[in-house]
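ok posting inputs for the magnesium ion job
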Amino acid sequence: MGTRRRRVSVIYFISKLVKWDDLCMEIISNPTQTEIKKSAQALMDGHLVAFPTETVYGLGADATNEKAVTRIYSVKDRPVDHPLIVHISSAKQLDQWAIDIPDYATNLVNEFWPGPMTLILKKSELAKEFITGGQESIGLRIPDQQVALKLLEEFEGLGGLGIAAPSANRFGSISPTTASAVEIELSSFLGSEDLILDGGQCLIGIESSIIDCTKATPVVLRPGAVSIEMVESVTGYGVSINSIKTNTKTSGLFESHYAPKARVTLGMRTEFGDGFIALAEIPTPIGTVRLASPKSCEEFAQILYSALRLGDQFGLMNIVVVEPMGRGLAIAIRDRLNKAASGKRSRD
Ligand code: TXA
Ligand code: MG
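and the output
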């Protein structure tokens, strides 16, 4: 009894000394300009700041600080030879990071930035191996989200050159589209001086289109909201998709990626207790748990990842998704769903 009492009082004493809040990263909701300034300073000081973009939340670090960038890899548990996208606030900074920019890439920049499009360009000296995964190219993007743009502007005001930011999830998992999803994914891996900026739900909901501009004509490496048709009409070139066959270590191009814990199966075949995601016009099969009923492809993209996460929160074993048909954004949604569904045991 005496020992127990002593143990309780020791725990009480330690809890008085340690403020548990000091051990966790801070989450800032609807950040003010002052809080964004503080976050930019945290980046300059080598800490990590997760922030919203119009696509998904990113886990940011100063793209010229090797130690900070190395932490991104360990927090995400991502292989170090998978390159990171560098985010900038204005096309003026392109020449710092990239060389030999083809005219068709400049056309894409003028048309779609700020926006959900990442360009792969030949890298400059500034882009070091710890960003490019040892490749000769660099991924660049100007996001179209106010918190992200303000953070970039404040960061650049302090002398920063770009924010490296992969999606703020553990390697292989679903990208977060809300700050609470970032917290669920990464809070146990972030430190007390790291920050999460909460800017609400991401408007687009799936990752940027990735366009390789290192060749004579553009190649789509990852389809997104800037569709193949849009790239073709702006560049005047026929565009090919080159997802899996590339040599590049591009994690989003792995066959199995963007996956929840539940098994994802595509089609209409359901069993009792399955989760179910489909356009609103498709009725819910008897015995399934409806996770989302988007009314359009745009809404499908926006809620897809949170619906898959909801399935995990419910502890569902299997989520059946009816893919949207058509081109444009539907191609990008099918791309992510096929990755979420592959590498898992098939139902048959
Ligand atoms: O929407 C997005 O792109 C989000 C937000 C935060 O900007 N970012 C994002 O980053 O999705 P990440 O790292 O999760 O996915 C970017 C993909 C990775 O598969 C990476 O390997 C690839 O882009 N990538 C980056 N640089 C590349 C390069 N130089 N060549 C080929 N692929 C590259
Ligand atoms: Mg990612």
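notes: The first strand starts at residue 26 and ends at 29. The chain has a mean pLDDT of 91.
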